[in-house]
Design goal:
- By secondary structure, the chain is α+β, with helices and mostly antiparallel strands.
- The chain folds into three domains: 109 residues, Acyl-CoA dehydrogenase/oxidase, N-terminal domain (Butyryl-Coa Dehydrogenase, subunit A, domain 1); 101 residues, Butyryl-CoA Dehydrogenase, subunit A, domain 2 (Beta Barrel), CATH 2.40.110.10; 152 residues, Butyryl-CoA Dehydrogenase, subunit A, domain 3, CATH 1.20.140.
- It is 49% helix and 14% strand.
- Strands 1, 2, 3, 4, 5, 6, 7 and 8 form an eight-stranded mixed β-sheet that branches.
- Strand 4 and strand 5 form a beta hairpin.
- Helix 10 packs antiparallel against helix 11 and helix 11 packs antiparallel against helix 13.
């Protein structure tokens, strides 16, 4: 079925996310203290369909475009970075689950169109063939939102009944088939609840097994010819979605700083009783805002490239390498903007009651995700520009 979304529909989703910013801000400290998104925040996201933004429209999902998703997660990130990150990764899980066949999709969303799918590519697991599917055991960490998700889509190395490897895959498992070990103790993004999911000898039917090689090469597009969204190459698509919360956090840091400056904050150790009179502060504000613009522009170009590929254009290794470089540039620009804003705020910005210090910690942890690591992206892009065919990562 070919599902078309008009601009008004996409704008409505963004407006809905905008209206959630105050709620997420009000519960951001609670989210961090609890080590998982606050119940009020999660309920609002669930009702808005932001925990499975890429779920199939045929089963009640939004099936939103990548550009819209980045804008939605951007808005959510302005309210609470950890909550936005959880929603983004859960929506990524919905994208991957939607690559499966109609039976698997119905398993997930047939009775609950708001069902949430957490996931991870880690392979600390086993999956042995048995009649009708596979018996799966393993430990997967970190799995953001695992305490709130109904399903987990996790990496498994498949083997047949004789023990012969069949290749890497992902298994879709109901979270009530396993247990959660609370192992997530970090300096930032504590509120994502990225704990460890443990499964012991769970049966997974064959229709809930996703081939990882098919995911990486975009081969699942052929299984969904009438659904434009699922024609996108999964890894570039999911990587670009990560930029939404990061852009939102950087924007939140700018907003917090402007609010503090509007109250007449002095510059310690100087004669400036109002920081906005200081040329250094004016320069730093301009540079911080411009750095956020840089991050947005590189993200927008990369999103445009990914969406063009949904229309049948195959992304070459060189194009995918540039996408990684765009994300690296955006990440570094977002970090730079927040560093400048921290300097403007001074030591008082690190008070536990100030949201800026939490935004900073969350952004620093989020931008260390392996898919966003700037140096890896720089090497990938450099190799592509130099014509070196062998790449260092399959996740591009």
């Amino acid at each position: 079925m070919n599902t078309v979304r008009d601009d008004h529909f996409e704008d409505t989703l963004i407006d809905r996310a905008e209206k959630l910013i105050p709620l997420l801000q009000d519960h951001a400290a609670e989210t961090e203290a609890a080590g998982r998104p606050a119940e009020a925040s999660m309920q609002a996201l669930r009702e808005a369909g932001f925990l499975n933004l890429f779920a199939p429209a045929a089963l009640g999902g939004h099936q939103a475009s990548l550009a819209t998703a980045v804008d939605v997660f951007d808005r959510l990130g302005r309210g609470c970075g950890a909550t936005a990150w959880t929603a983004m990764l859960a929506s990524g899980g919905s994208f991957l689950a939607a690559l499966l066949d109609d039976q698997a999709r119905t398993d997930v969303w047939g009775d609950d169109p708001y069902a949430m799918v957490c996931g991870g590519f880690g392979m600390n697991s086993s999956a042995h063939a048995v009649p009708g599917g596979f018996t799966v055991s393993g430990r997967w960490e970190p799995l953001s939102g695992v305490q709130d998700a109904q399903w987990a889509l996790v990496g498994v190395p498949l083997v047949d009944s004789s023990g012969t490897p069949l290749g890497p895959a992902m298994a879709l498992i109901p979270t009530n088939a396993g247990t959660v070990e609370q192992t997530w103790q970090v300096a930032g993004m504590q509120g994502t609840g990225s704990h460890t999911f443990v499964v012991d000898e769970a049966f997974v039917p064959a229709h809930r097994i996703l081939s990882l090689p098919k995911v990486l090469t975009g081969a699942y597009a052929a299984d969904h010819p009438g659904e434009l969204l699922y024609q996108a190459m999964a890894i570039p698509f999911l990587t670009l979605a990560m930029m939404g919360p990061i852009l939102g956090m950087a924007q939140a840091a700018l907003s917090v700083t402007l609010e503090r400056l509007a109250k007449g904050k002095p510059v310690g150790g100087t004669t400036y009783q109002n920081a906005i009179d200081s040329p250094a502060v004016r320069f730093a504000i301009a540079d911080a805002a411009s750095a956020i613009d840089t991050a947005r522009l590189h993200t927008a170009r990369a999103v445009s490239d990914v969406e063009l590929a949904q229309h049948g254009q195959v992304l070459t290794v060189g194009q995918r390498a540039r996408l990684k470089m765009d994300t690296a540039t955006a990440v570094l620009a977002a970090r730079r903007s927040v560093q400048l804003l921290l300097d403007i705020n001074g030591a008082s910005g690190f008070a536990s009651t100030q949201p800026l210090q939490r935004i900073w910690r969350d952004l620093e942890v989020a931008t260390r995700h392996q898919q966003l690591a700037p140096d890896i992206s720089r090497e990938v892009y450099g190799r592509a520009l130099l014509g070196i065919e062998e790449q260092i990562s399959p996740l591009m």
